[in-house]
Amino acid sequence: MKVLLATQKPFSASAVKLIREVVEKAGYEFCTLEKYPAQEDLVKGVADADALIVRSDKVTAEVLENARNLKIVVRAGAGFDNVDLEAATAHGVVVMNTPGQNSNAVAELAIGMMIFMARTQFTPATGSEIQGKKLGIQAFGNVGRLVGAKAKALGMDIMAIDPFLPTEKIVEGGALPAKDLDELYSSCDYVSIHIPATPQTIRSIGYDLITKMPKGATLVNTARKEVIDEEGLMKALTEREDLKYVTDVAPDNYAVLREKFSSRVFATPKKMGAQTGEANVNAGIAAAAQIVDFFVNGNTRFQVNK
Ligand code: 3PG
């Protein structure tokens, strides 16, 4: 039984060592395909793999077609928009994620990004403090709840919305429930986005919502670039010279945005929310353990293509 860890953006060496230990202890072969230059390397690399661990690597229909022995793909992380679920199901391949395992890293980055923008991207210009400001959290899942708790400890007021959670759960998590997105965007100095990229959410945040934000507000995106309507964002930032956008996932029009609004827009050069040693270890080990548990006990608890 061969387990392939295919990561274009590799895990830390110590996380890979621990993943290897879990896999080899179970008696399986462990191989890595890291920093591969082209998608065709992944297509070739999976040919004899029985199990695959990936990060944001693109597990396309072509990859699945070529993976004749593949039984399980585990996305070591939360978002599984990089896996073609329909093709996986058609090939009888189980797809899982490892929810919660890298959430703290992403939540810490969201807080850091808020402070980075509040303090004028670490330039000497006069900034502002986040204490006493209102933070809106769009989706109160693993990451959203952690962002809320950390922001609350820093003295922020928290409002949240989540279409899949009853309002009591939002209150229990320490946030004021927003009745709708209009309320969240129109009443918060910061809005932090934690929704997945799905057909319903892609390009769902655009001009109308962004321009509802109060004077001097900042939109923080550590989710996916696809959830933003980039034209709407551009229009909003052009008309409203007080608004800011900070993101861990550079938009396609970033060069233009940055040129026009350098003091109000910032994107990390590469997605780095989950890029900590701790998150690498947590998500990597969870992925390996889930594979072993699936082969040994048939456990499909974290399956996302049921
Ligand atoms: C996730 O969905 O878990 C995060 O976006 C992390 O993605 P990464 O593993 O590619 O850094």
Question: What does this protein structure show overall?
Answer:
- The protein has 306 residues and is of the alpha/beta class.
- It has twelve helices and twelve strands.
- A seven-stranded parallel sheet has the order 8-7-6-9-10-11-12, sandwiched between helices. Strands 2-1-3-4-5 form a five-stranded parallel sheet, with helices on both faces.
- Strand 1, helix 1 and strand 2 form a beta-alpha-beta unit.
- Helix 1 packs parallel to helix 12 and helix 5 packs across helix 6.
- The longest helix has 21 residues.
- 3-phosphoglyceric acid binds next to loops.
Order of helices and strands: EHEHEHEHEHEHEHEHEHEHEHEH
Task: Outline the low-pLDDT stretches.
Answer: none
Largest sheet: 7 strands, parallel
Output the structural class: alpha/beta
Keywords, please?
single chain, 306 residues, alpha/beta, seven-stranded parallel beta sheet, five-stranded parallel beta sheet, 12 helices, 12 strands, 17% strand, binds 3-phosphoglyceric acid
In short:
The chain has helices at 13-25, 39-45, 61-66, 85-90, 103-118, 142-153, 167-172, 181-187, 207-210, 230-239, 254-260, 277-297; strands at 2-7, 29-34, 51-54, 72-75, 94-97, 134-138, 157-161, 176-177, 190-193, 218-221, 244-247, 265-267.
